[in-house]
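Anyone able to model this chain together with 2-OXO-4-methylpentanoic acid?
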Amino acid sequence: METQAPTASFTVIPNRRPATDEERWLAMEDPVFGKVFTDHMARATWREGEGWADRRIVPLAPIPMHPGAAVLHYAQQAFEGLKAYRWEDGSIHLFRPEANAARLAASCARLALPTVSEADFLAAVTGVVEADRNWVPSTAGASLYLRPLVMATEPSLLVQPAAEVDFLVTASPVGAYLSDGTQGVSIWVSRGYHRANPGGTGEAKTGGNYAASMLPQKEAKEHGCGQVLFLDAKEDTYVEELGGMNLIAVRADGSILTPRLSGTILAGVTRDSILTLLRDEGRAVEERDVALAEIIAGLEIGEIVELFACGTAAVVTPIARLVSDDFDIAVPERDGDDASVARSVLERLTAIQYGRAEDPHGWTTEVVPAPEG
Ligand code: COI
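re: yes, here you go
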C-alpha cells in the first residue's frame, strides 16, 4: 500500500474535562495492565485516493463505528506496544519508537492496510505523551504503555482491503503485565493448537494472532499455568513464542539460545534489545530452530539452566515450569541475584529505559524535558 510523505503535525484539541489529580492518582496507584486510560488519544483517518488526513490529538472518547466496519468482521487491523518512561529528573523518554514504527509499517503491509509513516507515528505517540505527561508514573517499574492501532473502518462486507482506515494511539499507565512475574511463570506447552503458519500472519502484530491464542491460553490457566507456549505448525516440533512474548534460554556455559525469526514469530523489540545487551556482554547468542525436545533434554541434564520470556508488556519474566500433557519440568532456580541472566539483563535494560545507565545504542528519545528548577 502507499507510504505517505513525512508530516509531523497533529493538531491538539485538549480535553476540557481531564481526570482530576485525585482521580489520576487513584487510577495510577496500582493499575491492572491496560485497564486505565489517559485523557487523550491520537487519531488520523485515511481514505483511498486521499491518503492520511485529520491528524489530531483529541480527548479520549469512544469511537462511533458503523456495525459493518470491516475490522469488526474480517479483523483487518495491526497494532503496536511501546512505553514512555519517567526518569528521576522528571523528564520523559520513549524507548526505540522507530523500531515500533517500522514494525507497524511491516504489519500494515501484511494486512493490506495503508502504512503510517515514521514521522506520523512519532508525532502521534509524542503528542499523546506530551498531552498526558501527568499520567506517566514515577513508581519503580511503572511506565506509560502506548498502543498504536491501525484498523479498517470502512462499512463493507466485501473481503477486500478497506478504503477507509483509522490510526489511533491510546495510552495506559501500567505496572507489571504478569502478576506472578518476578516469582517465575509456569508455561503450558500447547500441543493441539498453533499460533501461526508459514505464509500466515505470525510475523505481523495483528489482533487475529492474539484471538487465536486465547483458547490455548484458557487451557494453560486450567492447568495452573500463566502463559502458553506454541510449537511450529509445520512440524509440531520447534518452540516459537508465547501468547505475547518471546522465549530465551540460557545454557550452562552462559551462551544464549532462542528461536530464530522464522517468519511465524513476532520480531520483539524487547527480544532484540536483550539479545543486543547479551552480545555486548560477550555472550554467544544462537538464533535458530529450537526443538522442544532439546529444551526438555537440556533442562533434564542441566545444559539449559534458565528460561525466560520477554516482551514490551512483560519486560523480562523468568519461567519456573514447563508443563504439558506428558511432562512437568521445573526450571531450576539460580542461586542468588548475580547468577540469574534474566535478572541481570532486566536490570541492564531497565537501567537504560529509566535513564539510570548510559544508553550506548541510542535507544531512548526524550519527549518531555525535565521541569526547570
Ligand atoms: C506487548 O508486549 O506490547 C504486547 O503487545 C503483548 C500483549 C500481550 C500485551
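The first strand starts at residue 11 and ends at 12.
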